[in-house]
Design brief:
By secondary structure, the chain is an alpha/beta fold. The protein has 15 helices and 21 strands. The strands form 5 sheets. Strands 1, 2, 3, 4, 5, 6 and 16 form a 7-stranded mixed sheet that branches. A 5-stranded antiparallel sheet has the order 17-18-21-20-19, with helices on both faces. Strands 10-9-8-14 form a 4-stranded parallel sheet, with helices on one face. A hairpin with a 2-residue loop joins strand 12 and strand 13. Helix 1 runs parallel beside helix 9, helix 3 runs antiparallel to helix 4 and helix 3 packs across helix 6. The radius of gyration is 24 Å and the shape is globular. Bound molecules: flavin-adenine dinucleotide.
């Protein structure tokens, strides 16, 4: 039996980065990943393929709106075979690079699934056993099938299938109103499908403010998505013509039909078959691997990182958790746990929705004193000339000195603009600090100065 300082189960974003850092610390490292091809969710079936396709759909949308800009672009349509081929080529290149990193010789790579036989030993699919002082569980997540009446009995797509389409579906019923449902629902609409989106909560993107969600909902409806929030699905059935959903909404019963069903109701951690009982690793009530702020599980030498433990399915968090695990496991001094007051979140719908730091709902719940100001994109020069009128920028700051607490942006390229706040927030800057910086005109970014100025006035007015 081979033994290592560090064994990583799963070579995705969390696992790869943990292995990289541990190897850099001079440790003997092994990575086990049974996937073929290697690459992890982000590269193969998550962020990268979805953003490749969403960007193409945005270009198409702009081309179709050419008249607004005084342009003639007749019959702009999606060439799905070409889009699909382009996506495959881009993703293959990213995956090739990741596989190269994983086989670089800095650590031993075992291309097999692993399961615990005890708290220090795992068995690989072929029967080989590996032992390690420290172990990381980084097995990711998979699409789940919640108990919706009829869902288990009808054919449905997951995000994997939507990302792999090489044709324009005639119509798609999207179940869910989370990030994946919204991003890919809009993508399907933009390539030419009729889209019906059914969401259980009162508004889509329920982790965000109703105000922000309302902007995205409006944009969806303006693009022709038939969107029902606050629904309860009563029955899903299928026949050779497609899917029928019967659902309750606003006190009435509705029936809608579509050729295809897209289950975007959520994901679940990959823990089945891992032998966590044999290792004495406990799960949370929601089935994630339970961890403390150093990513240690109920067995302190076994860590978890990424989607398998959460709390959010976001790549930069998975990376940060993986790096933290490697440093904590091998005694690097001066470490800090991941700072949840800096949480950064982006939804790549169009308009995009991005938040950083404290959300207004969190400030209210905590009873924290804060100042806020917002400014709409439809009154901002650069966005007006870009015909990008949806949304606003909203800033939250502490009232005494105007220290930034958080920001919410809905609008064109919000996912880029939100980064104007990343460094200042991490450095505990005030609105006055941000206003000392230069802001070029005309840019989308300069819109941020308006709420900053308003808050600065309020802070000064308090003295
Ligand atoms: C459609 C979609 C779009 C997304 N877009 C974004 C986005 O724009 N931005 C963002 O931040 N996040 C996005 N995400 C989420 C993001 O992709 C994940 O949070 C992230 O990739 C999770 O990384 P991970 O390391 O936890 O898991 P993964 O990358 O899934 O890695 C887990 C690895 O473990 C391996 N494994 C599983 N079980 C075993 C076992 N028993 N033994 C050995 N190996 C095993 C798997 O083969 C896999 O390679 C998106 C997700 C989806 C589905």
């Amino acid at each position: 039996m081979k033994s290592y300082d560090f064994l990583v189960i799963g070579g995705g974003s969390a696992g790869f980065n943990a292995a990289r850092v541990a190897a850099g610390l001079g440790k003997r490292v092994a990575v086990a990943d049974g996937a073929n091809p290697l690459g992890g969710l982000c590269i193969l079936r998550g962020c990268m393929p979805s953003k490749t396709l969403l960007y193409a759909a945005e270009v198409l949308h702009l081309a179709q709106a050419a008249k607004k800009f005084g342009l003639k672009i007749p019959r702009a349509t999606a060439d799905m075979r070409a889009m699909h081929a382009r996506k495959k080529k881009i993703i293959a290149e990213f995956a090739r690079h990741r596989a190269q990193q994983l086989t670089s010789g800095h650590y031993d790579l075992f291309r097999q699934h692993a399961r615990f036989v005890d708290a220090h030993t795992v068995e690989l699919t072929g029967g080989t056993r590996l032992a390690a002082d420290k172990i990381l569980i980084a097995t990711g997540s998979r699409a789940s099938t919640p108990p919706v009446p009829g869902l288990a009995d009808v054919p449905c797509w997951t995000s994997d299938d939507v990302l792999d389409l090489d044709f324009v579906p005639e119509s798609v019923m999207v179940l869910g109103g989370g990030i994946v449902a919204c991003e890919l629902g809009q993508y399907l609409r933009r390539i030419g499908a009729r889209v019906i989106l059914l969401q259980r909560s009162a508004h889509i993107l329920r982790d965000h403010s109703p105000e922000a969600s309302a902007v995205v909902q409006q944009a969806f409806r303006d693009e022709g998505i038939e969107l029902f929030a606050g629904t309860k699905i009563l029955k899903l059935t299928s026949d050779r013509r497609g899917i029928t959903a019967v659902f309750a909404h606003a006190g009435k019963t509705f029936t809608r039909r579509a050729r295809h069903l897209f289950n975007a109701l959520g994901r679940e951690p990959v823990t089945a078959g891992l032998g966590l009982d044999a290792a004495g690793v406990r799960l949370t009530r929601t089935g994630r691997v339970a961890t403390n702020r150093w990513q240690q599980t109920s067995q302190p030498h076994i860590y978890a990182g990424g989607d398998v433990c959460g709390p959010d399915d976001i790549v930069h968090l998975a990376v940060a958790q993986g790096e933290l695990v490697a440093r904590h496991a091998f005694g690097v001094k001066g470490l800090k746990p991941i700072d949840d007051t800096l949480l950064l979140n982006v939804v790549f719908t169009n308009p995009q929705l991005a938040t950083i730091g404290r959300l207004e709902s969190q400030l209210k719940k905590k009873g924290a004193a804060y100042l806020t100001a917002s400014y709409p994109f439809n009154d901002h020069g650069k966005s007006i000339l870009m015909e990008a009128n949806y949304g606003y920028v909203k800033v939250f700051a502490e009232p005494k000195r105007g220290r930034l607490l958080g920001a919410e942006i809905v609008g064109k390229d919000a996912g880029e603009l939100i980064h104007c706040f990343s460094t200042p927030l991490a450095m505990r800057a005030t609105v006055f600090d941000l206003l000392r910086a230069p802001w070029y005109h005309p840019t989308l970014a300069e819109i941020i100065t308006y709420p900053l100025e308003e808050i600065a006035e309020k802070v000064k007015g308090a003295f």
